[in-house]
């Protein structure tokens, strides 16, 4: 898979969920987290040269991950 296609499956799953839940986008939080986790991994592995049409800029991903800690991790 080329870099530009990284996280495409997660982005499509999020879009499908949002289309099905037009008035309740919070039902897609898990899909959104999956996309941002995928993007974070891509940036960590690919460094500065990593890019994908499915992912926002690295700084946006880092900020989102920081601002939205995984609630499941807190329960441990």
From TrEMBL:
Name assigned to this protein: Cx9C motif-containing protein 4, mitochondrial
Entries under Gene3D superfamilies matching the protein: CytochromE C oxidase copper chaperone
One CC-aspect GO term: mitochondrial intermembrane space
Mitochondrion keyword on record: yes
Keyword Cell cycle: no
Disulfides per UniProt: 7-38, 17-28, 39-55
Alphabetic keyword roster: Disulfide bond, Mitochondrion
Family: Belongs to the CMC4 family.
Protein species of origin: Mycena belliarum
Transmembrane segments: none
InterPro entries attached to this UniProt entry: CMC4, Cys_alpha_HP_mot_SF
Subcellular location: Mitochondrion intermembrane space
């Amino acid at each position: 898979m080329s870099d530009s296609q990284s996280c495409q499956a997660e982005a499509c799953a999020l879009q499908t969920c949002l289309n099905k839940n037009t008035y309740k986008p919070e039902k897609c939080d898990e899909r959104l987290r999956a996309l941002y986790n995928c993007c974070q991994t891509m940036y960590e592995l690919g460094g500065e040269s990593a890019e994908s049409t499915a992912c926002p800029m690295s700084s946006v991903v880092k900020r989102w991950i920081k601002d939205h800690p995984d609630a499941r991790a807190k329960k441990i």
